[in-house]
Structures are given as structure tokens and as C-alpha cells.
């Protein structure tokens, strides 16, 4: 049993004598130590080190929550994020297809229903509700659904998520969904901030987020139980932490792309959404 590895306690260059000039990540620390963390310590590492890298800290989200984005910038966010939303049930179907366990599949398929709709409470599903959000921001839904006007980096990041769950172990595929541990925090900040700071945004426009507040904790708890059970060697534990980091990178890269294109320096890739297109 070892204590959780956090961004605050992993060894610095000076302490380790590492000549490369970079700190070891918590995943490298686990691999290097070669000692199995307890399930509780692994969970703590995932929660702490994952949250440190979560997109909640990205300047684009900070601007959004501060009420400092223009309507056009909000539109760009919704349009690009649609690509991620639309890919989620596809990546979950890939994960389903990789499991031999009916019990796992029964639990995991709820995620597909949440996004595609069709299940009792969630008749419409998250994708439709995301389109409602885009429409509420003044976008044409056909344009959003075409995905043609998303930034190149958005498409690459979304494809990276699909590739990750297709090519990795099932453990890594499941661990990559663990950013959902933190999404209720992001949503809990975002929704009241948007309602308070953007007068054209209504509760109806933000209907997407409400069911996520109970769906995400249900999904994250299931995934966390599996990851802590399946990661029964130090290498597998490190793989799980790296999977979560890779997913944080995907979310971060999408916001980097938005920031570069629509905030600073404002270089919009050829063919991508231009605010004037929406006027
Ligand atoms: O609003 C957010 O910040 C946010 C973040 C994430 C996430 O952390 O991946 C998801 C969602 N929302 C979300 O709505 C969602 O359905 C979702 C599914 C997944 C996933 O990886 O399976 N992440 C997220």
C-alpha cells in the first residue's frame, strides 16, 4: 500500500536527480515505484491528478464563466463541441463491442441511450438537447450537424478519442471516460454563470446539462469501480492514469483550438465557422 500520487507530492527534478529537466508524472511515478497502490490510493491519484489537468482550468472556460465571451465565441464553442457530443455514443458503442460481459454491456449501454435518446425519461437524448443549445445561441442546426465548420483540431481531437478506445485495452478505454468524475463541477459552475452573465441564454437553452448532473456521477462511479478492480498491477494502474491524462489532453486541445481561432490571436482555419457566417 502506498499513498496516492498527486501533482503536489510527486518528486521534482531536484529530488530525483532526473537530468531531463521535466518532472515525472504521477503515472511514471507508479511505474517507477513498481508498487501496487490500494484501490483507494489509485482513486485518489485519479481524482487529484485528473482534476489538475481538467479543462475546467482552461482560459476559454474561465472567460466563458466570467461572462466575457461574445455571442459569436459562444457559438463557436457550441458548434465545435457538437462534434464531441455526436462522437460520444459512437465511442461508447465501440467500448460495448469490446466487452464479453453482458453485465458490463447492460450498464454501459445506458450511456448510448442518454445521448441518442429513446429511453423513458431521456426520450430526446443529449445530442438533440445539444442542438437545442446551439439553436438557442442562434446557430442553424443543419450547419452544426454537418460538422463541416468545426476547426480541424476539433475533428482531430475527437478522432483521437475514438482511436484511443478502439486501439487500447478495455481498461484504458473505460479509464478514459473518467473525466466524468469532474464534469458535474464544470457544469455546476457553467450553468449558473451562463444564466447570470449572458442575457440571451435561458434555462431552456441549457436543458442539456441538467440530466448530466445525475448521469455523469452514475457513469463515473461505475467506471471507477471497474478501473480500481481491473488495474491489478502497477503498470495497469499507470495505464489507467495515463488514459485519464490522454482524455484531459483531448478536452484541453479542443479548447486550445477554440482560443487560438476565436480569442487570441484569432486565426480561424480556412473553411471553419466564421462569426459573420452566422449573422
Ligand atoms: O460539460 C463538460 O465539461 C463535459 C465534460 C465531459 C468530459 O469531461 O469528458 C463530458 C461531458 N460534459 C458530457 O456532457 C458528456 O456527455 C460526456 C461523456 C463523456 C465521456 O467521456 O464518455 N465525457 C463527457
Automatic annotation (TrEMBL):
<dbReference type="GO" id="GO:0033732">
    <property type="term" value="F:pyrroloquinoline-quinone synthase activity"/>
</dbReference>
<protein>
    <recommendedName>
        <fullName>Pyrroloquinoline-quinone synthase</fullName>
        <ecNumber>1.3.3.11</ecNumber>
    </recommendedName>
</protein>
<keyword id="KW-0884">PQQ biosynthesis</keyword>
<keyword id="KW-0560">Oxidoreductase</keyword>
<comment type="pathway">
    <text>Cofactor biosynthesis; pyrroloquinoline quinone biosynthesis.</text>
</comment>
<dbReference type="InterPro" id="IPR004305">
    <property type="entry name" value="Thiaminase-2/PQQC"/>
</dbReference>
<dbReference type="InterPro" id="IPR011845">
    <property type="entry name" value="PqqC"/>
</dbReference>
<dbReference type="GO" id="GO:0018189">
    <property type="term" value="P:pyrroloquinoline quinone biosynthetic process"/>
</dbReference>
<dbReference type="InterPro" id="IPR016084">
    <property type="entry name" value="Haem_Oase-like_multi-hlx"/>
</dbReference>
<dbReference type="InterPro" id="IPR039068">
    <property type="entry name" value="PqqC-like"/>
</dbReference>
<comment type="function">
    <text>Ring cyclization and eight-electron oxidation of 3a-(2-amino-2-carboxyethyl)-4,5-dioxo-4,5,6,7,8,9-hexahydroquinoline-7,9-dicarboxylic-acid to PQQ.</text>
</comment>
<dbReference type="Pfam" id="PF03070">
    <property type="entry name" value="TENA_THI-4"/>
</dbReference>
<feature type="domain" description="Thiaminase-2/PQQC">
    <location>
        <begin position="54"/>
        <end position="256"/>
    </location>
</feature>
<comment type="similarity">
    <text>Belongs to the PqqC family.</text>
</comment>
